[in-house]
Amino acid sequence: MFKDIEHLIRLALVMAIAVVAFVFVRASVIPHSFGQYGHYRGDAIAEIAARPAAYAGHQVCEGCHTEVVDQKKLGKHVVVPCEACHGALSNHAEDPASVTPPKLDTALICARCHEANSAKPRTFPQVVSADHSGGLACDTCHQPHKPGIESSDKKAAGGKK
Amino acid sequence: MEITRRHLLLLLPSAAVAWKYVLAGTPESAPNYKLTEHWWGMLIDIPKCIGCGSCVQACAQENDVPDGYFRTWIERYHVADWKIEKPEVESPDGGKQGFPANETSGGKNFFVPKLCNHCADSPCTQVCPVGATFVSPDGVVLVDKKYCLGCRYCVQACPYGCRFINPKTNTAEKCTLCYHRITKGLTTACCEVCPTGARQLADLKNPKDPIHEFLRTHTVQVLKPHMATGAKVFYNGMDGSVR
Questions:
Q1: Distance (Å) from the alpha carbon of B116 to chain A's nearest alpha carbon
Q2: Which of A16, A36, B106, B226 is the most buried (most CB within 10 A)?
Q3: Do B192 and A119 touch (CB under 8 A)?
């Protein structure tokens, strides 16, 4: 056998310890879910999914506000979801008693969609609000949940669409 | 076999690693949601978009997007007569507050909402050096905030300009397709508030999703198809000038 074999054994021992230490450190540093689905941390998916939602969704609103649902069915705004105008209200959905939605300023809210712009689709109802209403709030004449004006009033008001 | 001191020293670390796995257990996931049963995308119907900016506002509120940064935004295109290769594009504040009335006459004007295309072969995930961004098994491109270094490779790699570095966290951020909503059976915030239905969430793996009938019967395009990103945001009625 080799002379001074204990040197080699000692070296092998040191290397073995180094390898074990490397494997141990690597295993403890890399999150256990890394590589579960691919080259990323699998747990990240569940973490991202856990965020709370700010918008409740119109199905939730419709569960309670059935009278508004019936009213909307009569007009063109039936396709407009509640939170498009009323804003994010999952707080209100969770605690209807203490969180009340703010009253909306129709002069601003309606104009966001209905102010005339040449890039809007031609068939979409648009007005130049300064000419159309002269600064009056839209809900003076229009009921936002059922925006159409009855035909008898329409002539008198001189409105269009 | 007799266990010597050396054996014990070798065994202990591996036992510790094994115990770590036992303690961690399996990660919790949303109830009744199966990753493998979905493949998410979105449909954008350009002729329906009125540029109201509701989607941009809703996205910012739902996802705490800092001011001046956008996970979704709206562009207004103006194409003068035949100059399809040189459209005039503007997006004041991402279209968050809508668009001022434009006086341009002649040519055509239209709105194009933009967001992450949730590419199946996404360039942004391919360049990430640490595995912080990835395409989830249900087809959504996500960022792992805890793993992101903020190196900006992905921001450069995205051909659609959909990524940014969040100035608060200094990590890459992008549209998650409201992953926290779609995994609970809700639609995305932008689709939820769109008053004209110009944006619709689509589950391409669900055979009952109306997207399939729509794709079959309409002229639909994705952005930058020549880049072969496997984009899953489908645009109906998109003009050739859109970049």
A1: 16
A2: A36
A3: no
pLDDT for B23: 53
Shared domain for B205 and B110, answered yes or no, is yes
The answer for A 11-30 residues in CB contact with B (under 8 A) is: 16-17, 20-21, 23-24, 27-28
Contacts of B184 in chain A (CB under 8 A): 49, 53
Among chain A residues, CA nearest to B27: A43
User: Which amino acid is located at B105 in the chain?
Assistant: S
What pLDDT, on the 0 to 100 scale, is given for residue B16?
67
For residue B228, tell me if it sits in a domain.
yes
The shortest C-alpha distance from A79 to chain B (Å) reads 7
For residue B40, being part of any structural domain is answered with yes
- Residue B73 falls inside a structural domain: yes
Supply the DSSP symbol for B31: T
pLDDT greater than 70 at residue A43: yes
Q: What is the pLDDT of residue B29?
A: 46
| CB-closest option in B51, B144, B193 to A119 | B51
B226 part of a folded domain? yes
H or E element, residue B6: helix B5-24
Q: What is the CATH number of the domain that holds B52?
A: 3.30.70.20
pLDDT (tens digit, 9 = 90+) per residue, A50-101? Answer: 999 999 999 999 999 999 999 999 999 999 999 999 999 999 999 999 989 9
Residue in B14, B35, B181 nearest the CB of A53: B181
Strand ranges (E), B91-198:
108-115, 133-135, 141-143, 164-165, 172-173
d(CA B182, CA B234): 18
Domain around B157: 123-172
DSSP string, A36-53: SSSSSBTHHHHHHHTSPP
pLDDT score, position B20: 57
Residue in A with minimal Cα distance to B194: A84
CB contact under 8 A, A46 and B20: no
**Helix or strand (DSSP H, E) at B72:** strand B72-79
φ, ψ of residue A12 to 5 degrees: the values are -60, -40
Residues B207 and B167 in one domain: no
CB pair distance less than 8 Å for B179 and A84: no
pLDDT digits (tens, 9 = 90+) for B158-191: 999 999 999 999 999 999 999 999 999 999 999 9
Average pLDDT over residues A134-152: 85
